[in-house]
Specification:
Structural class: mainly alpha
Transmembrane segments: 7-27, 47-64, 76-94
Strand order of the largest sheet: 1-2
Radius of gyration: 28 Å
Number of domains: 2
Keywords: Membrane, Transmembrane, Transmembrane helix
Largest sheet: 2 strands, parallel
């Protein structure tokens, strides 16, 4: 007869295993935003199925060994639950370590950009950084120089960091923009971005 208690524990452990394994897919792309399908894909569910299949095979083999006071079905559940529990503990540890490491890297990046923002504010030279590879020039050199001059009047410039998009660095850049925004609003007045963009648009007229 199958132990209901053992069966319940087994189901709970397996469900937790699946949930934690799937959460790992989210942590792999954190802090990037993603949908459920991408998270599941990144978690590599096929590896989860392989692990469960191996555990089931080992548990089935061990269930045929003679263990006092345990029938084969309960032996199978016990062994399968133990294996899932061990791997669950490892996955939880790995996911927690990954999250802590990522958060630490983000915090360091944000602190560096906040410090850079303070220095740029003192110099009245705000620089927005962005990753865009090597785009085809939208304007000729003369027009581009005029655009740069307009931006400089408003105290800003733009710098292309290359084609590699670093999500953690992107979090730092966002913190930079949040830090300099009050300064630029005070320097240029409310709605300064619309005014600047309007001047740039007028260059083509």
């Amino acid at each position: 007869m199958v132990s209901r208690k053992l069966l319940t524990i087994n189901i709970v452990v397996v469900l937790l295993f699946i949930a934690v394994h799937t959460l790992g897919g989210y942590l792999l792309i954190y802090p990037g935003k993603s949908d459920v399908r991408t998270i599941i894909s990144e978690s590599r569910p096929q590896y989860l199925l392989i692990a469960l299949a191996i555990f089931a095979l080992i548990a089935w083999l061990i269930s045929h060994l003679r263990i006092k006071n345990l029938n084969p079905k309960n032996k199978f559940l016990l062994v399968f639950t133990v294996f899932c529990g061990i791997l669950l503990s490892y996955v939880i540890y790995f996911d927690a370590a990954t999250y802590i490491s990522t958060r630490k890297a983000i915090k360091e990046s944000e602190n560096e950009y906040i410090q850079q923002a303070k220095e740029d504010i003192k110099k009245d030279k705000i620089m927005y950084r962005f990753a865009c590879g090597l785009p085809i020039p939208e304007y000729d050199t003369k027009t581009q120089n005029k655009i740069d001059s307009i931006r400089k009047k408003f105290g800003i410039s733009y710098f292309n960091t290359g084609c590699i998009v670093d999500i953690i660095d992107g979090e730092g850049q966002q913190k930079y923009e949040e830090t300099v925004k009050p300064y630029l609003d005070k320097r240029n007045g409310k709605g300064w971005e619309e005014k600047m963009n309007k001047e740039i648009e007028n260059l083509n007229k």
